[in-house]
Amino acid sequence: MEDMSRRPLHLVLSAAGWLGFQATVVWTMAFLAEVVVPHTVDGPARMATPAAIGIDAALLLLFAVQHSVMARRSVKAWLGRRIPAPLERATYVLATDACLVLMLVFWQPWGGTIWHVHGAAAIALWAACGAGWLLAIASTYAVDNLELVGLRQAGWAGPRDDTATTLQVKGLHAVVRHPLMTGLLLAFWATPHMGASHLFFALATSGYLAIGLAFEERDLRRTFGAAYDDYAARVPALIPSLSRTTG
Asked: What is the pTM of this model?
């Protein structure tokens, strides 16, 4: 039986991870939109370009390594021997929060402008960016959001039902297989002002998402077999198709 004296700690730590994640998502929106926050993706350069590129690459690599390595089964098993099982996901979320904060604080802008549009084109790009963020956020609720952020495991809600482990083919998943990645790509690229450092960020994160997509597709095919093959034949991976529906 679980030690009930630990439950308040589990609740507090998981809530801290969730609150931190919400804050860093909003911060990232402002960082990429170049509003409100003092340090933005394409702000004034503060150091020589080679040093800035090196720092930015290191920050992106740190996030990619943390996000990938901590998701591996062997690392989860190692953590499972050292932290309570209900805090495994919360620990992952807290580590992600920390890496995002480091990137947002220490990111170094550099280079010139790739494009800068105004008027109707700028409005359209801002709308696309907003749609991307909305899609990314909505996609987390199309699955088990409470489990995704570690709240369910720590005791904020009861165990998930059996439908959470089935292949998702309805709602957002009826028009695109990976709505979270679609939303993030749109949010990262749709901007009326694309500077060199923003382009570097968008290219690096897009490459990381492409690698993640390949691994996720492999895992889904292993898990669901022919059912996923049939689903993939009907629904595109990243570009939504409103003309296709699943049965």
From this structure: 0.87
